[in-house]
Amino acid sequence: LAGQTEVALRLLTACEAHATDPRVLAAIAFTRGRIELRSGRAAVARAVWETGAAACTDEVPAKAAELRASAALGALIAGDFYGAARLAREATASAASNDGNTQLMGRWVRGYALVMMGKSDEGRPWLREAAELAERHGLNTTDVASVIVCSLGMVVIGEAAAAGRLVEPVIHRLRADGALGYLPNALYGAAFADSQMGRLDTGRAAAAEAADLAAGTGNVLMQCLSLGCLALLEAQRGDEQACRQHAAESLRLSEAADLTSIARDSFDGLGLLELSMGRPDRAITYLEHANRYHAANAEAPVVGRPSSTDLIEAYVRAGRQVPSTTFAQLHTLTEKNTHQPDTAAALQWRGRALLADEGHFDAYFMRSLELHSRGGSPFDAARTQLCYGERLRRSGRRRDARDHLEVAYETFQRIGARLWAERAATELTAAGQPAGPLPHNPGSELTAQELQVAQLAAHGGTNREIAAQLFLSVKTIEMHLGRVYRKLGIRSRTQLANLLRDKESD
Question: What is the pTM of this model?
Answer without folding.
Answer: 0.83
